[in-house]
Amino acid sequence: MIKEIISSAEDNMKKTVEVVRKEFASLRAGRATPALLDKVTVSYYGTPTPLNQLANISVPEARMLVIQPWDKSVIPEIERAILKSDLGITPTSDGTVVRLVIPQLTQERRTELVKVVKKKAEEGRVAVRNIRRDVNDVLKVKQKEGVPEDEVKRGQEDLQKITDKYIKEIDEMVKSKEQEIMQV
Question: What are the Ribosome recycling factor domain coordinates in residue numbering (predicted)?
Fold first, then answer.
């Protein structure tokens, strides 16, 4: 019973780390990646649709994205959606594809991005710790219900090891993302 509770907590922590990883992928660090456009939604015949469901997104060069929509009539909407997004990139179109040239980051912008990375990482760490706290509360209730104390203690120790593991994973992701951002 305790093992299932711990296992469930570990699954939730894994999901939290994945969310942080996706957040980091959507931050641009001077290099083009299709993940930059994950949050862009296009009004497609009046329905907000994720851009990656309307077009093929490729990276022909290190700092360029090419968006090839399957329906060419949606190109103006794609351009509008990109301009509205918080990417700060102006799209160019030749009627068949939309090109996004990722500008070189300034030192000021890099420092801002590092702050954003650290903030998102801290949110992830807090989420992991909240999972730990909730599970510890459940374990205390189980102890009151008659589960042996040593079993509960073992569960809490396992839970702490798992928590440390995922917090360390988030810290490592922060280090690598920070290096990626500060790299000129």
Answer: 21-182
